[in-house]
Amino acid sequence: MSVEGKTAVVSGAAMGIGKAVTEILLENGAKVVLLDINEAAGQSLLESLNKKHGAGKTLFVKCDVESEEQIKAAFKKTVETFGGIDIVCNNAGIVNESRWDKTISINLMSVIRATYIALEHMSKQSGGRGGAIINTASMAGLGPFTCCPAYTASKFGVVGFTRAMAGASKALGYGVRLNAVCPGFVQTDLMDQIPEQLGPYTVLGESVEQMKEKLGVLSTSDVAEAFLELLKDETKDGQALFVTPKKRSYVQFPSLDSKE
Ligand SMILES: NC(=O)C1=CN([C@@H]2O[C@H](COP(=O)(O)OP(=O)(O)OC[C@H]3O[C@@H](n4cnc5c(N)ncnc54)[C@H](O)[C@@H]3O)[C@@H](O)[C@H]2O)C=CC1
Ligand SMILES: CCCCCC(=O)CC\C=C/C=C/C=C/[C@@H](O)[C@@H](O)CCCC(=O)O
């Protein structure tokens, strides 16, 4: 799918990975609606993007992804402004092992909530144009990251939901592809804040520095490139794309097909 002329919605767009995804989409000719709870950072990014890419290609909507009402309003505003939605990147996320319920709520429940609301606009079965949804999972959604069990659970959930929803979308003729991106460490505020966010598992976080050294640390634009690959390659549906500085590969899951 060409990104040129398409309308995209990116959550957690004010900073980090979401900001880089927003930038790569604009560079490739898309219009982008930035959703974030941080209004100051969102508005300031919008101003600099408008200077660089020209006004009329972006919109910032203050939106807490935990709120169904605010997500609905943000998607409605997108359709009113740009005439439809082709791409959604569910990217907003946190690490907070002390508030594990909030971690599950933002990282997993909000991805499911936003996907269902997005599909009301995007599905060909409800008058939409079809398109693509990319959910930001993590390497911690593929293997257990012992210093953050709730974060790990949320990201396993994102991978599982994305794969199942891709199958449902295909079977029901929605015309919407769904994929997950699973990065290792990425240089962002979230990564820098890991040591303070592990609550009862803080002592286990001591191995994080060694893991970072072993795996390397991605730049946000490395991750944005992976998003672009998933958008452009229409053969990718229900995939988890694992990304580290040394490797980018599609995860091979065990086949559990009862027909085989
Ligand atoms: N940085 C890393 O090492 C990795 C990050 N990830 C995932 O990437 C995603 C983005 O993370 P980063 O860019 O690193 O974090 P970040 O902290 O730099 O940016 C996250 C953005 O999400 C926004 N946000 C947080 N809660 C929100 C809410 N309730 N509603 C709307 N916006 C909200 C923040 O205001 C911020 O702008 C997350 O889902 C994270 O789990 C995945 C793998 C590695
Ligand atoms: C602590 C929150 C991390 C937030 C940012 C990320 O999502 C980074 C994810 C990066 C690496 C995840 C690695 C997971 C590795 C496991 O699959 C396992 O192979 C490593 C085992 C060692 C351990 O759990 O300590």
What layout of secondary structure does this protein have?
Blueprint: E1 7-11, H1 16-27, E2 31-36, H2 39-53, E3 58-62, H3 68-82, E4 87-90, H4 100-122, E5 131-136, H5 149-171, E6 176-183, H6 189-192, H7 208-215, H8 220-232, E7 240-244, E8 247-250
Helix pairs in contact: 1-8, 3-4, 4-5
Protein name: 15-hydroxyprostaglandin dehydrogenase [NAD(+)]
EC number: 1.1.1.141, 1.1.1.232
Pfam families: adh_short (PF00106)
Q: Helix count, per DSSP?
A: 8
Average predicted confidence as pLDDT: 97
- CATH fold-level label: Rossmann fold
SSE topology string? EHEHEHEHEHEHHHEE
GO molecular function, one term: 15-hydroxyprostaglandin dehydrogenase (NAD+) activity
EC number: 1.1.1.141, 1.1.1.232
Organism: Austrofundulus limnaeus (Annual killifish)
Family: Belongs to the short-chain dehydrogenases/reductases (SDR) family.
